[in-house]
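[Archive record]
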Amino acid sequence: MADVPAWVLVLNTIAAGGFGLAGTYLVPRSQREARRHEERRANAAIMRDKAEQIFEEISRLERAIGAQFLVATRVAAGMAEDDDAPLADFDKIRSLAAVYYPSLLSALNELEAPMQERLQRVTEALKTAAGHKSLEEQSRALSLVTFQVTLDQWKNVGDASRRLRMQLTEDVRPYLPGRGL
């Protein structure tokens, strides 16, 4: 076996030590990167799931308002009694939006403010209807006001839900698969 010069042995030792040090730095770094990537993917999945829940709640809201409109139409036409149609509730949409998509809150406020105003109109109509002479006049006046308020509400929900969906579509775009996750 031939004698190897000392400088070659020193150079080999330095190179091996350098590779060892680089490995101890690069392996944990790549593991951290892999963990971050998995966390981003998991977060994106959660955000997509919550966006889907908001879409479903918006659809339920539209169906509830549509049902109220149909009931109000039948009541105003004298074809049916006013059964207690469920009123739309914003709590679930608002809580999901507040936590996951805060940019939707302004659109929700735009939707909810006219609803509050219409509720006040119905309250005033109740007071006015109570002043009519006969029960039939009271009922007719109230059903017409209820119909108009419900029609306004139906239009408002349609416009607002389209704005909510457009905003949510933009907000969820970064979390779609294949977007650098």
